[in-house]
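Here is the promised in-class demo. Please do not try to memorize the tokens; focus on the logic of going from shape to residues.
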């Protein structure tokens, strides 16, 4: 059975070079499971543990007339996945949704942009929301975005907690903003990246399951970081250094007969 249906509206001009004056394509929701079923299994990884009820909403429209002799149009492409359940192996997200827009600028590939207006996934004690814009795709890619999320540590999957050799509880909350280029991802250029935010830890407890009775507790802790501040010492000034501060509110460490309180 057909799995992709779309409504197409267009106007053509054949006076000179064949030209598409206007074009819009609106796809009916595409069921991801239907697509996977049509792909030969030898072309895919093992998806026996993959399940989802997700559908893809897709539409596109030209923003300028398109000469058929050229390769890439000026167009806007929108792709979204409404709130869905996605499960793969030990990963299980009861809420996954995204909304992405790509803007094409013809043969000026470097001027194209990708806007991730929404990328949310929730499950296994993790709630997260990402937004970002990608630009300058060929010439030193640039990303400008935010990340917000929280994590209930006691609900992390077992494949993570088993590696810790103990029990964990507490909540981590993060809120960050970032602006950087690919070329900044090295020790000589990293100071040019803008990274700012905070990570907060509440009611954290770690109890080791080994032979040594170890218990670590923190009522609250906050890590703040940012590269938007300037550092001045004597007459020397340095901009965009990564500044980090840590605040801890009531912490205790017990290991056997050793006790430490902060």
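The designed amino acids, position by position:
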């Amino acid at each position: 059975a057909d799995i992709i249906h779309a409504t197409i509206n267009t106007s053509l001009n054949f006076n000179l070079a064949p030209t598409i004056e206007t074009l819009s394509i609106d796809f009916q929701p595409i069921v991801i499971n239907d697509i996977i079923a049509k792909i030969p299994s030898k072309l895919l990884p093992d998806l026996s543990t993959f399940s989802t009820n997700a559908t893809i909403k897709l539409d596109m429209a030209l923003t300028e007339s398109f000469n058929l002799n050229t390769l890439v149009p000026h167009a806007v492409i929108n792709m979204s996945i409404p709130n869905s359940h996605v499960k793969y192996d030990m990963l299980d997200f009861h809420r996954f949704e995204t909304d992405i827009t790509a803007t094409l600028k013809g043969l000026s590939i470097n001027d194209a942009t990708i806007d991730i207006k929404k990328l949310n996934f929730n499950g296994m004690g993790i709630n997260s929301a990402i937004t970002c814009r990608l630009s300058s795709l060929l010439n030193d890619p640039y990303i400008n975005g935010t990340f917000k999320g929280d994590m209930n540590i006691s609900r992390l999957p077992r494949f993570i907690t088993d590696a810790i050799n103990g029990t964990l509880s507490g909540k981590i909350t993060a809120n960050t903003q970032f602006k950087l280029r690919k070329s900044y991802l090295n020790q000589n250029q990293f100071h040019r990246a803008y990274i700012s935010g905070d990570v907060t830890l509440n009611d954290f407890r770690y109890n080791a399951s080994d032979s040594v009775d170890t218990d670590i507790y923190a009522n609250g802790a906050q890590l703040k970081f940012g590269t938007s501040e300037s550092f001045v010492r004597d007459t020397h000034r340095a901009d965009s250094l990564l500044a980090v501060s840590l605040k801890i509110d009531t912490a205790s460490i017990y290991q056997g007969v050793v006790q430490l309180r902060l």
